[in-house]
Amino acid sequence: MYDDFEKFLDELSPGPTSRKTPMILYRKGGDKTDWTTPGAIVYVPTTTIVQIGSVEWTGAASLSGNISQAFQAKYQGEPLIFVQVRVTNPAAFVMTKVSTSGDAAEISWKSDSLVTLVRFSYIVYGGPLRSG
Length: 132
Prior knowledge:
Elements: H1 5-12, E1 27-29, E2 41-43, E3 49-70, E4 80-89, E5 94-100, E6 104-126
Antiparallel strand pairs: 1-2, 3-6, 4-6, 5-6
């Protein structure tokens, strides 16, 4: 028994032998490992891996471009990825198209004016990871 709540919370802190993972209670789709396949099956994911980061494109003034972002961990199937434009230089409206594989995300973008920098933030959901 814990004599106060703080000691209990200390036990929940991740250490070298334990790893906390995000909890997704249900996922609906057509394939257990490919999170991009539509379907009616409801899964209770037990090996969800979430990766979060940012990437930026820089270069000569352009109305479009693309950038690839390799994932630190590789998924067995296709993960879901959500991308948001965070910053452009100069400020501009930017549309994005994102395609994924278990290894990387490909972000293509188009702008309504010439830009020299576009910064993206992303969050990737998937699981389980590929072995090896």
